[in-house]
Specification:
7-stranded parallel sheet, 6-stranded mixed sheet, single chain, alpha/beta, 219 residues, globular, 3 helices, Rossmann fold, UDP N-Acetylglucosamine Acyltransferase, domain 1
Length: 219
Amino acid sequence: MKKLIIFGIGEQAEMAYYYFKNDSEYEIAAFTVNEEFKDREKLFDLDIVAFENIQEQYSTTEFEVFIAIGYNKINKIRTNKYIAVKEKGYKIASYISSKASIFTENIGENCFILEDNTIQPFVKIGNNVTLWSGNHIGHHSVIKDNCFITSQVVVSGGCIIGEFTFIGVNATLRDHINIGKSNVIGAATLILGDTDDNKVYMATATEVSRVPSNRLRGI
């Protein structure tokens, strides 16, 4: 089996541990974080090693690394750690669920693609991209580097999603549109046209009813 080190010790790292352990060809050897964030010695009975000294224990030829960090600061933190790991000379792993429907080979490194994703033919996915569970990525679409797509998102055919973009649950993108860099597209948002860089789109939240639940007669 291939040997893997997971960068991170938070919830994202715990999820990565579970998926790699139970549904991949990798054997997880350790976790790593920068020294200032190392608040314990072990996670899941595996050593947590200071990233600054990682090469002293784990060679770049025998071990690969996966950066398990979320979308903080519009994916910038994960991207910075991804670059730092590459600068140390490690090969970067990706996880693609065996329960996802994948019809493309154009998927980059440090991607985290969970169950029930449907990725159609001619899709291109860049490096350092997370696709949480249950998304539809339509044919001929391009997801550029350092994006995070949550769950139940519909990306219609021929879309281009710019770097560092975050897309929230149940968002829908119509076909053949260009999403700018560093967009934040909120939950349940409908995007029907091109967007500029650094834009935020938020759907209107459902309003609370004036009638309390204990006065409803039809339920």
